[in-house]
Stage 0 sporulation protein A homolog
Amino acid sequence: MSQDKILVIDNEMEIIQLLRLYLSREGYQVIWTTDSTKALPLTQKENPDLILLDIVMPGLTGYEVCRRIREYCETPILFISCKGEDIDKVLGFSIGADDYITKPFSPSELTARVKAHLRRRNLSNLNDIRYQSQNTLSFEQIVIDLNAHTVTVSGRPVYLTAKEFELFVLLCKFPNRVFTPKQIFDHLWNSYGIEDDFRTVMVHISNIRKKIEADPEHPKYIQTVRGVGYKFVI
């Protein structure tokens, strides 16, 4: 049985009970709160392997909770929300969410997505241990520690979310190679059964540029090949 711990943050007790029922059947340890203001201390205390987070809540919104968690933690965050407009999803991804599930949702689909995110997280952790001797990528002013999941630019630490880091590493491992948005999306998201949404790729590319480029409007490292895709230039 799985020992992974999942934190559920939702002000609807019915949703929490439903998630506890289905996730517990899969062997997950489920902890929860209906109070969004308790989300941060609970995350720090329990160190969950994955977080399911509602958006519309009294106190702190899910967006604000996600933003604050991302200041110190790379734990996968899946939004579950009745807000289903494209702008809501783009905003969710832009502040660091790894997935976005719209209410009402299929419990079996949500469980499948949880499994996929945890499988990838656990595989990533295993690979980090297995390849500690090959854990650094260096390009001029950029150094990527694959084991510690850290990036420095000109000696300055740069914080990337889990998905931003994964995308950045993909580009950096194949410098000067052009990746189409579909290739990037398939690599980072399609194993979760998410429909193609290449705007998600655009948002993540934009976020990475803002963090690593001296001039994000005229990027030096992550360049756009018009009509084709993106490449990391050295």
